[in-house]
């Protein structure tokens, strides 16, 4: 599993298996300055949250998500952070976290406490970044794989 963290510098990206959060509408360009990124397996941890609130979401597509839809996503990210902080095992995260690949849950469980702490940190950081962007932008696009 990739390190569970929000990537703010596109120069850190290696390959193309990342989800991009782009302030504003998609303008026919990926890997934009001002965007933040999550490795695919890390995004998978929060993918159920995004998909639950945005029916147009597609893992392989690009979707602009409007401010009113982001509000409950942000609230769910905050709840996930709290849940991860208090979780004692992967079972405590059931239903709130997605494990994209067959090995993701096992890998997460091997270093459970550090991964749960990293998930809480990343969820809070992404929620804060989203809140900040939504002060200026009506839409934040999620660019899939």
Folded structure, characterized:
44% of the residues lie in helices and 14% in strands. With 145 residues, it is an alpha+beta fold. The chain has one domain (10-143). The chain has a four-stranded antiparallel beta sheet with strand order 2-1-4-3. Helix 1 crosses helix 2. The longest helix has 23 residues, at 112-134.
Give the SSE map.
Elements: E1 18-23, E2 36-39, H1 40-53, E3 62-66, H2 67-86, H3 104-110, H4 112-134, E4 139-143
Antiparallel strand pairs: 1-2, 1-4, 3-4
Helix pairs in contact: 1-2, 2-4, 3-4
Keywords:
145 residues, alpha+beta, 4 helices
What is the compact description of this entry?
Helices cover 44% and strands 14% of the residues. The chain is of the alpha+beta class. The mean pLDDT is 96.
